[in-house]
Amino acid sequence: MTAIPTIVVDADACPVKREIVEIARARGAPVLMVASHDHRLQAEDGVSIMQVDRSDQSVDLYIANHIKRGDIVVTQDFGLATIVLAKDALALSPRGQQYDDRNIDYLMERRHELAKRRRGGGRTKGPKAMSDEDRIRFQQKLTKVLESRQENAEP
Region Disordered: start and end of each range (predicted)? Predict the structure, then answer.
């Protein structure tokens, strides 16, 4: 059995921070928002803030070095998601996609191919705008994951 998981957020560009806080508060789960000093985040009840330097991978490195087995990490970064999975934690995108061993290799390969195309002068589309449906899907997925983890937690 595991304790209630911490929700760790790659908060620099996370579009669902408010939703995470609301769901975590309703479920009694602690939240840790990790962001560079370039972003203003405010600690509040149940939400801890860790600000790191602005270098390229500081947020990812902090998260990778501090997550525990069973934590839930919210990130858009496929590379960080790979590390999270290797540490036996759960990784979710802000759109509600759960990264797992079945999809992470494909996502990393696709990211690599698009980067090669850009380096060669090609153009690629960025991600589509976050929709209300994306937010709802994320809220449903995070709630479901927390409920599942809490059912298996020690009393």
Answer: 115-134
Task: Please count the other Cβ atoms lying within 10 Å of the Cβ belonging to residue 24.
Answer: 22
Is residue 154 domain-resident?
no
Per the CB < 8 A criterion, the answer to whether 54 and 35 are in contact is: no
Q: Any idea what the CATH number is for the domain that residue 54 is in? A: 3.40.50
> Under a CB-based contact definition with an 8 Å cutoff, are residues 73 and 92 in contact?
yes
CB neighbours of residue 91 within 10 Å:
26
**Number of folded domains in the chain?**
1
Q: pTM of the prediction?
A: 0.83
Q: Is 80 helix (H, G, I), strand (E, B) or coil?
A: helix
Kindly report the number of other CB atoms within 10 A of residue 70's CB atom: 17
β-sheet bridge partners, residue 52: 36
Domain holding 27, by residue range, is: 7-124+138-147
